[in-house]
């Protein structure tokens, strides 16, 4: 049975870009006769103002996007993430890291690495061999094919819109954090555990998150969890050409005319719909989506 989800982070109200992602995930579930869930990804508590989660749920309801089960909050699920981390620690795939961002940047510079990847530093593996008396700040997952760290890990997967995708996890990402220095859980671990616990079969989200997919597939492999199908949707861009986001000041979604907002979101997805009511627009959009993405593709992925 198809089970999809929309998983907003409640750092601010939904904006035009997040409505596109919500609508796409809802449409895919409805087009396949499946269930659609909402998960509030609030593990980064300091960045989540009180009450924003309820604002988001109200915005979705105004747009006719109602979940088939009560929403789930990640902040209540820390024990599950702790169990997963312990499993990975016991198997040797996770190790303690004592490095600060400044130290990582210095180590990379010393190795002649000048560039950053999407604003993130590719971790050079400084603490793989041990902390040498230093104190653990964070917990990292080895990004190599083997525990000895001698072989690069390249992951290949099939995206339902973007097609075949490949990433050398070792060189393009490096060992990545599962539990942060401030004690908060990293997105990568939390999302994998919750997708598996909720039985998610299909993940439909913005194309900016496609880069996260290999990290999540690797965690699924190591934890013995199923890998869902993935579909990454077009992004809404701001006037500067960058992705519209809360971080760059995207305005909260204007819903005095929810039908207009939905038509605009559908247009970004390449769906031309008409109608004056939310119900009419959603019904048309489901039919248009079925024509574009109605076929089910098997979840395909490999590593080497």
UniProtKB/TrEMBL annotation:
Motif 'KMSKS' region mapped to chain: 243-247
Keyword list, A-Z: Aminoacyl-tRNA synthetase, ATP-binding, Ligase, Metal-binding, Nucleotide-binding, Protein biosynthesis, Zinc
Residues in the signal sequence: none
InterPro entries hit by this protein: Glu-Q_tRNA(Asp)_Synthase, Glu/Gln-tRNA-synth, Glu/Gln-tRNA-synth_Ib_cat-dom, GluQ/Sye, Rossmann-like_a/b/a_fold
Positions annotated to bind Zn(2+): 97, 99, 123, 127
Gene Ontology terms for molecular function: ligase activity
Manner of cofactor binding, per the entry note: Binds 1 zinc ion per subunit.
Lineage top rank: taxon: Bacteria
Residue ranges annotated for the Glutamyl/glutaminyl-tRNA synthetase class Ib catalytic domain, each copy included: 5-252
Cofactor(s) the record lists: Zn(2+)
Keyword Protein transport carried by entry: no
Residues bound to ATP: 246
Residues that bind L-glutamate: 5-9, 41, 187, 205
Enzyme class name: ligase
Similarity-based family: Belongs to the class-I aminoacyl-tRNA synthetase family. GluQ subfamily.
Protein task: Catalyzes the tRNA-independent activation of glutamate in presence of ATP and the subsequent transfer of glutamate onto a tRNA(Asp). Glutamate is transferred on the 2-amino-5-(4,5-dihydroxy-2-cyclopenten-1-yl) moiety of the queuosine in the wobble position of the QUC anticodon.
Name assigned to this protein: Glutamyl-Q tRNA(Asp) synthetase
């Amino acid at each position: 049975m198809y089970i999809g989800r929309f998983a907003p982070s409640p750092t601010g109200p939904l904006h035009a870009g997040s409505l596109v992602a919500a609508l796409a995930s809802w449409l895919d579930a409805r087009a396949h006769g499946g269930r659609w869930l909402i998960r509030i990804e609030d593990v980064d508590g300091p960045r989540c103002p009180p009450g924003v989660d309820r604002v988001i749920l109200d915005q979705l309801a105004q747009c006719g996007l109602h979940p088939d089960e009560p929403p789930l909050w990640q902040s209540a699920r820390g024990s599950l993430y702790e169990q997963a981390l312990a499993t990975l620690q016991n198997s040797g795939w996770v190790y303690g890291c004592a490095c600060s961002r400044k130290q990582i940047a210095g180590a990379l510079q010393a190795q002649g690495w000048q560039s950053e990847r999407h604003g993130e530093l590719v971790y050079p593996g400084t603490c793989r061999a041990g902390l040498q008396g230093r104190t653990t700040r964070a917990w990292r997952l080895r990004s190599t094919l083997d525990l000895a760290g001698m072989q690069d890990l390249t992951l290949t997967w099939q995206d339902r819109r973007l097609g075949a995708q490949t990433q050398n996890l070792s060189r393009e990402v490096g060992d990545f954090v599962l539990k942060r220095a401030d004690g908060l859980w990293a997105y990568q671990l939390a999302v994998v555990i919750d997708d598996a616990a909720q039985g998610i079969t299909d993940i439909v989200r913005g194309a900016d998150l496609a880069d996260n997919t290999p990290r999540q597939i690797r965690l699924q492999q190591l934890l013995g969890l199923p890998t869902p199908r993935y579909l990454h949707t077009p992004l809404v861009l701001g006037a500067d050409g960058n992705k519209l986001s809360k971080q760059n000041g995207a305005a909260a979604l204007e819903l005095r005319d929810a039908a207009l907002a939905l038509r605009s979101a559908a247009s970004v997805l390449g769906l031309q719909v008409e109608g004056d009511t939310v119900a009419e627009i959603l019904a048309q959009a489901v039919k248009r989506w079925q024509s574009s993405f109605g076929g089910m593709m098997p979840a395909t992925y490999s590593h080497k």
